[in-house]
Specification:
The protein has 228 residues and is mainly beta. The protein has five helices and 15 strands.
């Protein structure tokens, strides 16, 4: 991993998939400098990575995060579709119409988001649903980037075929309805849906849904629309 800092302030990168001394590998990189380190990803699952430079709250709240998937040596059961969902919240100092908005740290410390999202945009998968065919297995890799709030992952109208909570790929749960993905954590979910329709996926903490953390899995070619 080589981190090149083309910005104006120090940055770093923290891989939750790594077993490595943070003071060595996750150290700050000054503007204009580069730094390289290596690690072996021996733990399967889906993991968050993010900037770990102080104040970490500000760097994550500004969108400096992502997901890393480490496949197990023994492959998971086959899935027909795989989608990665990174949940996060946004704390803005304006509506962004007259001028670009930026981070409001007071809101961030008070945990009062303006938006909560999957992959950075509120409601984007309501407007542009993810797709599958009846009888297919859809796999969701879900990371809760936070920076502070958890995601209670749930797919409306079905029950998880398999769920691997908190990136633990050694065993799975069956027949579960909602699984908490803690801020900074990850989990993997399989759903197999036989009936054509529009199936919302949400954080079942419904304030999050109102703020945009909701999408649709479109199975087949159903008529009409769906919201949640």
């Amino acid at each position: 991993m080589t981190l090149t800092n083309g910005g104006a302030i120090p940055h770093s990168i923290d891989f939750h998939a790594a077993r490595i001394a943070p003071n060595v590998a996750f150290r700050d990189v000054a503007p204009g400098e580069s730094f390289t380190f290596r690690f072996v990803a021996n733990d399967p699952g889906v993991f968050m990575y993010h900037c770990g430079t102080k104040p970490v709250l500000a760097h994550i709240a500004n969108g400096m995060y992502g997901a890393l998937i480490v496949d197990p040596a023994t492959p998971l059961p086959k899935a027909d579709h795989e989608y990665v969902l990174v949940a996060s919240e946004w704390y803005m100092n304006s509506d962004g119409i007259a001028a670009p908005a930026s981070l409001d740290m007071q809101k961030a410390r008070a945990m009062m988001p303006d938006w909560t999202t999957f992959n950075g945009y509120a409601n984007q998968y309501v407007t542009h649903p993810l797709t599958a065919k009846p009888g297919e297995t859809t796999r969701f890799y879900v990371v809760a980037a936070g920076p502070t709030l958890d995601t209670n992952f749930h797919v409306v109208g079905t029950i998880f075929e398999r769920a691997w909570p908190n990136a633990d790929m050694t065993h799975f749960q069956q027949g579960v309805q909602t699984v908490a993905v803690p801020a900074g954590g990850g989990a993997v979910f399989d759903v197999k849906i036989d009936g054509e329709g529009l199936y919302p996926f949400v954080s079942h903490a419904f304030a999050h849904v109102d703020l945009g953390q909701v999408g649709l899995l479109k199975v087949g070619n159903p008529k009409g629309t769906m919201s949640h």
